[in-house]
Structure formats: C-alpha cells, structure tokens
Amino acid sequence: MSNRRGFLKNAVGAAAGVVFTGCSLLNAAQQFGAPRRRQVEIVPLDEHLARSCGELCGAVHSTDVIDASVVILARERRDPIVTSDPNDLRRLDPAAQIIPL
After folding, report:
1. CATH T-level fold of 2-100
2. pLDDT tens track for 14-33
C-alpha cells in the first residue's frame, strides 16, 4: 500500500495535477487519504457526462458509470488513468493508457 500512496502523492504533486469525478475522488480518498484540495480538480457528473457514461456502458454492457466517467474524462484530456482496477477500465476502453497500481 505504501507504493500506491507514494505514487498518488507524486501524481498529485505533478504540475498537471489530478482530475477526479466526485465518486472517484471518494474512492481514492478511502484508499490513499484525501489529496490536498488545491491540487485536485473535481469534475461534476453533469447531464452531458452522465449521458456519455450511459452510452459507453451500453456499448460494452457495463453498469459502472463511475469507471465510465473516468474513462471519458481521460479520453477528453488525453490523460493516463491510474487505477488499482485496470481490468474494468480496459473493458470500457481497450486503448486507454492505464497505469495499474
């Protein structure tokens, strides 16, 4: 777990920062401790993002809208995804750049 904590701490300290949806931030905070607020952008799950998540989930027969939101935001920003659950995210987007913890 200390390697995971260190990786997230380094990622949060990077110039680009870290982007979370509200629910993915809660998940990360439960696993690694809450990152400092000034280094985190929280993207709301608005109607546009929610519809995109529903479309992606429908296309791959998934029900995990939180994972879908992470994939969609990463696609839009061309960001890698750091996760402890790479298989579910790869199912949503096999081409995503995923960094497993």
Report:
1. Rossmann fold (3.40.50)
2. 545 555 555 555 566 556 55
Query: 89: closest CA among 34, 16, 73, 77?
Result: 73
> Residue 22: in which H helix or E strand, if any?
helix 22-32
- Torsion, Cα of 76, 82, 86, 89 (10° steps): -20
Asked whether residue 1 carries a pLDDT value surpassing 50, the answer given is: no
pTM beyond 0.70: the answer is no
Complete DSSP assignment for 25-69: HHHHHHHH-PPPGGGEEEEP--HHHHHHHHHHHHHHT---HHHHH
Burial (Cβ within 10 Å: 0-12, 13-18, ≥19) of residue 38: exposed
Domain boundaries, the chain: 2-100
Tell which residue, 52, 50, 9, 49, has the closest CA to residue 28.
9
> How much of the chain exceeds pLDDT 90, in percent?
37
